[in-house]
Amino acid sequence: MRNKWFHLVVALVFILSFIVSPTASAETKEAEVALRILGTSDLHTHLTNYDYYQTKEDNNVGLTRTALLIKQAKQENENTILLDNGDALQGNPLGDYTASVKKTGKNHAVYRAMKYLGFDASNLGNHEFNYGLSFLDEAIASAGLPILNANVYDVNTNKNRYKPYEILTREVKESNGNKQEIKVGVIGFVPPQIMNWDKLHLDGKVRVEDIVETANKFIPEMKQKGADVIVALSHSGYGSATHEKGMENASYQLTKLDGIDAVLTGHSHDQFPSGTNYTHLPNVDAANGTMNDTPTTMPGVYGSHLGVIDLTLTKENNKWSVKNGKGSLRAIKDIKGNDEGLMNVVKEDHDNTIKYVNQEVGKTTASINSYFAVVQDDPSVQIVSNAQKWFMEKELKGTEYEKYPVLSAAAPFKAGGRNGVEYYTDIQPGTLAIKNVADLYVYPNTVYGLLVTGSQLQEWLEMSAGQFNHIDVSKKEEQQLVDTKFRTYNFDVIDGVTYQIDVTKPAKYGAKNEVLNANTSRIVNLSYNGKPVVADQKFVVVTNNYRGSNKAFPGVKDAQTIYSGAKETRETIVEYIRDTKNINPTADKNWSFAPIDKQYAHVNTVFESSPKGQAYIGADSPISYAKTEGSGFATYKYTLPLKAETTTPPEQKEPTVEEKEETKETEKPGLNESDGGKDVTKEHTKGTEEKELPNTATPIFNLLLSGLILFVVGSGVFLYSRKHMTSNE
Q1: Which of 279, 288, 356, 662 has the greatest number of C-beta atoms within 10 Å?
Q2: CA of 367: how far to CAs of 304, 431, 571, in Å?
Q3: pLDDT value at position 720?
Q4: Cβ 278 vs Cβ 291: under 8 Å
Q5: How far apart are CA 514 and CA 506, in angstroms?
């Protein structure tokens, strides 16, 4: 009986399995969708293929060209989301024209262009804040698409100043034509450092939280609100392998987070995936465009590339998940033409910008270019310094600060590097227009004044000297003079004092303001009016708000702010040129490289610049052209100056008390003298040892005699002990 019931149950289960299985299979059967995310970043108002500085076409830039790639990518996959990652409203004369002439962000040409192309959302980059919060508010209110940021908060309400994220509901198709619905969450981030960079506009109004901490805060909320996929718009470079609170470049950290399925990055004006970039970081797959198995792209600058992230989504039990993903780039150099529809959308702003930049402000008697501005004192930087100094001296008249010498800090902004071989100032003799001033000074910075001491001035220059690699005088092979990872806008040349940079010493500070070698000093022979600068001497240094408000930059962070206004540096340059009328762009050569000993004449230092620089190499220049590389950049040789005579041994006598005191004094910051390639931290000890050489004959004789006596005594003791031990045996 039991066997009968057993067989009956088995039979029923077998029959039910055929009935139930199709239903269960229908519930668990996977749906699969290919979702494509397209992204731009760091457009910097390059809406068209036009160079407003040179007033000519430039097919290496322009959203009107990127638009063709966007349309092509959409045709390949209709399941597409189109996003922008910020730094869109500022960066070339079109952005300046909008802010300074139109004076409103309403109906901004950039957002009109994005709306025309069907962008689903845009992030805020750090340069969106350059023109102030009111201008930005006007632009956002009239944008016609979601403008996002999650980590900027209103200081009064402690609430998000902007919309932190957007959840986009989209109908998508499987390969078999079946329709599905997915919800894509998009969240935006900006570097916390905007509080320093745009302090004038932001201080007391907003605060900025850490990027990673903010992401961890909002990911669960976005999931709770139905986001099937989360895309991070991170206006932040990839950065390092470890997280530091408040870090500027945190995109690599975002790729580690559970819940983030794709990351579109920018800010660094770089490309990923591309070549070997970022492969030094753990778990980077450049071939597939992933970091920590998260697909990610960084699409260059000015519309040069389109980022493409392809995700394969699977749906099981009514829940979507990312099966796999891949990041890639497409370059506009591989296409021809423009999107004519978009050209018409921005035509009025484009034409008005051309008229604006061609307004005359003065004349120049010689060419002005920045091809060699990083390796020698240069007219393109000198003009900015002259204008700043001219302005500040007028502003300080009748104030308590009038008594202090005014120095001027300026840096070479357009110096190739990450922005390409065409990114140099090149102004020909003749009429100077607003476009030329914008070419000299590309940022909408404002004038800033600091009261600094001699020791602070020294540290400021030490930080700037990090622009150069450490040159090993013992090597004969080629050495790169310039550290291309050090941003040239941090290479401040301070005019009004004279100094030399000793590149045979290691840099004191790194590119992130960190101390690398606390006991070194590259800045030598720092002088004012022919006299050494002393530690407590005071100066006024005129700079820009970006530098002056930076609380991390050595020498600047502890300085006293004495002037902070809304006057743009470019306005100051225009006024200076108009006042001067005809300028003679000549560098005063207040800085140079410290000479090295003749025995190191074999040192072979090189740097890169545009091949166009060849035309501007003077007859007695230490610069000579070597070759043009496949990258388009040219390699130039720089011959470091040699000392007139080789170093002679110090006088062979015991130093006096006064000499010892002088030795101590030379170790103070700012008062070191160049030693032609020897280690400055060991020089004084070595000098003292050399001066004791005449007294060594007698001590050496005594030492030898003592050693002989000890040897004889020791031998006797040894023989006696051995004999004694033998007798005991």
Answers
A1: 356
A2: 29, 11, 21
A3: 43
A4: yes
A5: 13
Dihedral of alpha carbons 671, 674, 679, 684, sign:
negative
* Cα dihedral value 423, 424, 427, 433, nearest 10: 50
Q: By the 8 A CB rule, do 535 and 672 touch?
A: no
Residue 401 structure tokens: 């600060």
| pLDDT average, residue stretch 569-575 | 95
The per-residue pLDDT for range 360-374, each reduced to its tens digit, is 999 999 999 999 999
What mean pLDDT comes out for the span 290-312? 98
pLDDT of residue 36: 99
Nearest to 606 by CA among 464, 469, 487, 501: 469
Q: What is the CA radius of gyration of the chain?
A: 33
Q: Which of 25, 31, 39, 27 is nearest to 312 (CA)?
A: 31
Beta bridge partners of 326: 310
Rounded Cα distance between 14 and 481, Å, is: 80
Residue 520 pLDDT: 96
- The C-alpha atoms of residue 205 and residue 456 are separated, in whole angstroms, by 30
Nearest to 369 by CA among 617, 622, 49: 617
Range(s) for CATH 3.90.780.10 in the chain? 361-638
For residues 285 and 294, what is the distance between their CA atoms, to the nearest angstrom? 10
- pLDDT level of residue 726 (50, 70, 90 thresholds): very low
The token pair that represents 72 in the structure block:
């092509």
pLDDT at 672: 53
Q: What is the percent of the chain with per-residue pLDDT over 70, rounded to a whole number?
A: 84
Q: Which residues, other chains included, contact 35 with Cβ-Cβ below 8 Å and sequence gap of 6+?
A: 79, 80, 81, 172, 182, 184, 229, 310, 311, 312, 313
Q: What pLDDT score was predicted for residue 664?
A: 42
Please give the Cα distance from 77 to 389 (Å, whole number). 57
Nearest to 199 by CA among 279, 262, 271, 132: 132
Phi and psi (nearest 5°) for 49?
A: -85, 65
- Tell me how far apart the alpha carbons of residues 39 and 314 are, in angstroms, rounded to a whole number: 23
Alpha helices in 628-696 (DSSP H): 657-666, 683-691
- Closest by CA to 573, choosing from 449, 440, 448, 443, is 440
Q: How far is CA 454 from the centre of its chain?
A: 28
Model confidence band, residue 28 (pLDDT cutoffs 50, 70, 90): low
Q: Which residues of 276-291 are buried (b: 16+ CB within 10 A; e: fewer)?
A: ebbeeeeebebeebbb
- When the pLDDT of each residue in the chain is averaged and rounded to a whole number, the result is 88
**What pTM was estimated for this model as a whole?**
0.77
Please, where in the chain does CATH 3.60.21.10 lie? 32-353
Q: What do you get for the CA distance between the two ends of the chain, in Å?
A: 101
Q: Each residue of 426-483: pLDDT tens digit? A: 999 999 999 999 999 999 899 999 999 999 999 999 999 999 999 999 999 999 999 9
- Which CATH code fits 32-353? 3.60.21.10
Strands 294-299 and 290-291: antiparallel
Distance CA 115, CA 612 (A): 39
> Poorest-confidence range of 34-38, 358-362, 508-512, 688-692?
688-692
Read off the pLDDT of residues 551-563 as tens digits, 9 standing for 90 and up. 899 999 999 999 9
Q: Looking only at Cα atoms, what is the longest distance across the chain? A: 121
Give the number of other CB atoms < 10 A from CB of residue 675.
22
Query: 3-state SS of 119-156?
Result: CCEEECCHHHHCCCHHHHHHHHHCCCCCEECCCEEECC
pLDDT digits over 140-172, tens only? 999 999 999 999 999 999 999 999 999 999 999
8 Å CB contact between 512 and 425: no
Please, what is the Cα angle at 415 between 413 and 416, to 5 degrees? 130
